[in-house]
């Protein structure tokens, strides 16, 4: 295991529960100091005490509501100014259930702020800071609904498709800088996000729900293998490769001077 000094600090958003809490534990075990960000300060401090005792790393907690721009700007500034931060986990997010036509638009606006705007601002700050340092890792938690939007709520699916696209574009921008980028696309994962979004987990087949620990371990294995896109539950990686190959096959014909003959 590398020393803490070599690993630097991992900034984890949504760190008080679920996927973020598991990542915090796994990254501490890998020797990262931690900057844990969430709204629930009491839970953050309890987690920090356990992590310090178990792994001997430094853990700082920061209470922030990342649907609020002022809190996002403070965290963004920290990313830009703190050269010890070497990993950003963009994990904080919310889901929503129900039809777009009769949705609570204020709720959806908060979802977009957290799942899209905050992720973008933090990724931008990390990209600037990490490029300057010539090293660093940006992990964005997306979702498999980015690939199958018809199966879930329109706004949530669209927000995760944005995270996938952002990651792919950012990776191209950062080529040769020493910065590693990864998008993780979990399926249904057993976390509090299910309850908070009003989804009844008992209505989902048990063989579709992954435990958070298994999901994060798979995601970190994908990171270690240098994957840009990690889909923890996909048994056959060649299916993703075929999907990407089909996309690249279309590329030369996506922008041409004449319309396709079927439209004439």
TrEMBL record:
Species: Pseudomonas lini
Pfam families in alphabetical order: adh_short (PF00106)
UniProt record similarity statement: Belongs to the short-chain dehydrogenases/reductases (SDR) family.
Swiss-Prot/TrEMBL keywords: Oxidoreductase
Name this polypeptide is given: SDR family oxidoreductase
Gene Ontology molecular-function annotations: oxidoreductase activity
Superkingdom, natural source: Bacteria
Signal peptide: none
């Amino acid at each position: 295991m590398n020393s803490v000094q070599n690993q630097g600090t991992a900034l984890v958003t949504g760190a008080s529960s679920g996927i973020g809490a598991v990542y915090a534990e796994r990254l501490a075990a890998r020797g990262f100091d931690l900057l844990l960000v969430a709204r629930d300060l009491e839970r953050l401090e309890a987690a920090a005490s356990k992590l310090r005792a178990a792994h001997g790393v430094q853990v700082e907690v920061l209470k922030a509501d990342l649907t609020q721009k002022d809190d996002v700007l403070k965290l963004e500034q920290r990313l830009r100014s703190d050269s010890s931060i070497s990993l950003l986990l963009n994990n904080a997010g919310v889901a929503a259930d129900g039809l777009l036509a009769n949705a609570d638009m204020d709720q959806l606006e908060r979802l977009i702020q957290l799942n899209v705007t905050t992720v973008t601002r933090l990724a931008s700050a990390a990209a600037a800071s990490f490029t300057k340092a010539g090293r660093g890792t940006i992990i964005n938690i997306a979702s498999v609904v980015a690939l199958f939007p018809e199966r879930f709520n329109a706004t949530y699916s669209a927000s995760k498709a944005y995270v996938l696209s952002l990651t792919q574009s950012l990776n191209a921008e950062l080529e040769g800088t020493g910065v590693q980028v990864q998008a993780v696309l979990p399926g249904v994962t057993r976390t509090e996000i299910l309850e908070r979004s009003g989804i009844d987990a008992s209505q989902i087949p048990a063989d579709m729900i992954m435990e958070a620990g298994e999901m994060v371990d798979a995601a970190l294995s994908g990171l270690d293998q240098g994957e840009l896109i990690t889909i923890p539950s996909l048994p056959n990686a060649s299916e993703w490769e075929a999907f990407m190959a089909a996309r690249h096959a279309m590329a030369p014909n996506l922008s041409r001077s004449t319309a396709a003959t079927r439209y004439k």
